Amino acid sequence: QSGVLDITKFGGAPNSDISQAFTTAWNEACASTTAVKIMIPAGTYMLNGIDVKGPCKAPIEVQVDGTIQAPANQDEMKGADQWVKFMYVDQLTLSGKGVFDGQGETVWKQKTGGPAWSGKGPMSKVFMNFGFNFLNNTIIRDITSKDSKNFQVMVFSCHNITFDGFTISAPKDSPNTDGIHMGKSTDVKILNTNIGTGDDCISVGDGTKNLTIQNVNCGPGHGISIGSLGKFTTEENVEGVLVKNCTLTETDNGVRIKTWPNEPATLTISDLHFEDITMVNVRNPVIIDQEYCPWNQCNKQVFTKEPIYQMLSYID
């Protein structure tokens, strides 16, 4: 079929490492002046950390129908913080019935309750399943992210990115496995998605504008969180968040806003709408925490000389 690149034609085979085969197929697709689909058929494959980079000349769809396994050993990633990292691509679609399995269980056992990852460097070097960075006009559809060692998905500096029919799965006691975390991104949609994990189902970082979360099921997990915000001077406002027709079941929290005390950033958090939210056995349904201070990383008794401006408006 014209415009279709099957990774088995590039040396990729079930029960083997397809890193090189996928990279070769991507490079060919990226150079094409017409739309191309890369296919990973049913089967189980191993994949090492890869950087999938643009810019490319035409739209690309990656259809995954198999199970892709990350290295179980963190050290094999050589310090990379994201397992499958897409960067600088316009008009990317990631689709299919496939599962990306981060094999996180071996790492979860070694994490402590604090901000540091025990034994081998900072937790930031424990890799996430997905990194979507500097992307425009992107769709992630029907894919499953499972058992990430760290955050499941990071969205950074993206414009017009949609998750539709996405699934995130990890045990409720898996540490630091936030479902989807985003920052510095505009026009983000998370639709018709099921998230069960060990930390926030969705966490909204600074610089997020025009975010829609609709028809999302969350649980287990820590709910839907805006923040934490205000820890660093470089942080940007959060504007325009709609959370609608969502169900949270057996979560620690429902919806919450977290800001640091004495924060150096002057932030505005505005135009937040929470509509038709169903909560079942949720411990803390609504939280606005303006003294968020995990692991005693701040001094709540010391006040800044200038007032901190935080505006919460249009909350339904």
TrEMBL record:
Pfam families: Glyco_hydro_28. GO terms for biological process: carbohydrate metabolic process; cell wall organization. Its main location: secreted. Keywords: Cell wall, Cell wall biogenesis/degradation, Glycosidase, Hydrolase, Secreted. InterPro entries: Glyco_hydro_28, PbH1, Pectin_lyas_fold, Pectin_lyase_fold/virulence. The active site is at H222. It is found in: Secreted, Cell wall. It comes from the Eukaryota. One of its GO terms (molecular function) is polygalacturonase activity. Belongs to the glycosyl hydrolase 28 family. This is Polygalacturonase. It comes from Trifolium subterraneum.
